[in-house]
């Protein structure tokens, strides 16, 4: 990168917010997925004005810019595939406003999801999107990936909770979308366009989000099964009796063992599958729902059934679930995490196919699912140093994608296309649909400098 | 390649970059920069091991400038013992003669004077001078009270050893202190990879305790506790041959007659006592025995406890980072609405009390001081 560009970046963001050393380039070359590519420089601005300055300069100099939050994305969205400037938003992490009366908050993109939750909890409020990585992931990342999480089945995903944004466009212009009201249909829905755009259309610098009152109560249940098939059929049966749980998560034996190895909460390591189920709402309605769910599970052949009796037990069960992807590192050092989503009633078929694929390619594949959404996270475990194994991983990946699409599903429910699913985009989107996507991209970013090399091959 | 290196290489490969270490790292919480968190440090170590990066100043910063609080190791879902991995990196750097200058100076100070501050050894007795009795020093005694450098050399921490010996006198324990013959336990040397120097300290201290014929060593400092129990056997290749007890464990069985104290307190888990030694319940149980005392937990408590800001030699390596973490922790403490912060470590007590934030005005008390107040009714 030209020295003059680095000097200008330094005057825009400040010396202490500019990183140019080779070591720093290593440190900003990755997220939580497999690929790694190094940037030329890293900036960590603290204001919208600074972000705008960086984009204007990058546009003038035709230098790629890759926005980044915590770097915990699962599809390579914040990996600088074409080098350039990594634009970290982590230092823009303030809560700008909390309007508890109107259930609205305005925050900066670098604010960690869990820190928002902790700040609004004293007001009896919460922000429903709760990705597994909520203790570390940032709201800006949640917005541009349209993040999900266990609560999504009942509450919806990130896009259902964003009322407006402030966005810096690729050439540096700052625009506002939406507003602070719940219903707003003035003009096209630009807010929704930026949500899930994976940092390729603009850099989000403010988020106006919607909160909900914390439900009066909740109940957390653990159901253990002797087969994955029985567990995945129980999922449909629960919904079939008219219950939408606030969480309905599934894990197979491989992941139960990995999780138990880390958290030691007494998960039975011989169970083929577990469902972690939660219902929330008015206290009076909870126990009847628990009974109904228990009945459904027993009819589906549940082996063991329990309702958590203390807050610490609930926390332990959720710790086991939320850390399971990291805990899989105890089994094999490398992993590729899929995010396919199918109609819920076809989840048993998808799960069965994943088991077959695991056997066919002789690779451990952990089955993890936001089962209520039909969102499966097959974890393909391997050793990335073994080239032969890598080839089998690629083949297994292809079959998983092909199967999901055969079942009327999607390649990605909540992690984004990023780098890791790019070459399969045309398997799902028709040529004209891809073309429209590209035209939109070109409208916002004619020079293709903002997070280039993502989504479209 | 040695077994140790192979093990480290394999461990480095097992980091699947989930980034969950960010959640509990005090340094990352105050900087939001990747180099300060375990994932980043391990990525640098991996790059150097693969010869993709040289051993540079930035690498050395990544290996040494750390609070060594162990929160990352406790949080890592893959089970990586990050603090041990970084320690290995430090040992290797020391062998290459690349120890950071301030740590080399600290090492020199400790090995030539036997203490952290470089003062003459009789200064170690200053805390004992204004007591209503003279703590025994020579002869054979069943118990040695090992005060440690922080308690002995920093006036803000004098209250700890003073309270401790008053409690020992009150319960008629056959104890002695080592006074000017006590040298630094060697903890700061061990954690910065200066093992040979740490071994010298270990030999000197163990020799003193054996000469006194003691069977029990009581410490008020969790770092001394870990040094004696965990590092000394590694350094000396044998057990020091004395039962090592932290004050929080001694308090539980001391049979103290406690008077009420009407206070709302919050408890800060010292890194070396909590995560480092698994001692979470004894201090809490002791506090629950004092009538009128209400304990309210801080956020980031027990295994998730945030460092006080005084760990990892960071006060000398990176004073602004240290102060930033101190203030963060004190804000968490004052957010509980408690009257006092109680801790069980002279370094935590001294460090937290040095928070330079005008809106925080909260006394920091060590548990042995609180115990003496309850016993004496003062």
Short description:
The complex is a heterodimer of chains A (about 450) and B (about 375). Chain A is of the alpha+beta class and about 450 residues long. Helices cover about 35% and strands about 20% of the residues of chain A.
Biggest interface, which chains? Answer: A-B, 40 and 31 residues
How many DSSP H or I helices of chain A? 16
- What proportion of the residues of chain B form beta strands (DSSP E)? 5-15%
**Could you say what the CATH architecture of the largest domain in chain B is?**
3-Layer(aba) Sandwich
Class from secondary-structure proportions of chain A: alpha+beta
Largest sheet of chain B: 4 strands, parallel
Tell me the number of strands of chain B: 8
Query: Could you give the count of β-strands of chain A?
Result: 18
**Overall body shape of chain B:** globular
Strand content of chain A: 15-25%
Task: Give the CATH level 1 class of the largest domain in chain A.
Answer: Alpha Beta
Mean pLDDT of chain B, to the nearest integer, reads 94
Structure in words:
The complex is a heterodimer of chains A (457) and B (378). In chain A, a hairpin with a 5-residue loop joins strand 8 and strand 9. The mean pLDDT of chain A is 96. Chain A has 16 helices and 18 strands. Chain A has four domains: 3-88, Uridine Diphospho-n-acetylenolpyruvylglucosamine Reductase, domain 2, CATH 3.30.43.10; 95-213, Uridine Diphospho-n-acetylenolpyruvylglucosamine Reductase, domain 3 (2-Layer Sandwich), CATH 3.30.465; 217-326, Alpha-Beta Plaits (2-Layer Sandwich), CATH 3.30.70; 332-406, Alpha-Beta Plaits (2-Layer Sandwich), CATH 3.30.70. In chain A, helix 8 (228-240) crosses helix 10 and helix 9 packs across helix 11. A seven-stranded antiparallel beta sheet of chain A has the order 15-12-14-13-17-18-16, with helices on both faces. A five-stranded antiparallel beta sheet of chain A has the order 5-6-10-8-9. In chain A, strands 1-2-4-3 form a four-stranded mixed beta sheet. The longest helix of chain A has 20 residues, at 387-406. Chain A is an alpha+beta fold. The radius of gyration of chain B is 21 Å and the shape is globular. Chain B folds into three domains: 3-98, Alpha-helical ferredoxin (Fumarate Reductase Iron-sulfur Protein, Chain B, domain 2, Orthogonal Bundle); 113-252, Rossmann fold, CATH 3.40.50; 257-376, Rossmann fold (3-Layer(aba) Sandwich), CATH 3.40.50. In chain B, strand 5 (263-267), helix 14 (281-288) and strand 6 (293-295) form a beta-alpha-beta unit. The model of chain B has no long low-confidence stretch (mean pLDDT 94). In chain B, helix 3 (38-49) crosses helix 6 (82-95) and helix 9 crosses helix 18. Chain B has 378 residues and is of the alpha/beta class. Chains A and B meet through helix 2 and helix 12 of A and helix 3 and helix 4 of B.
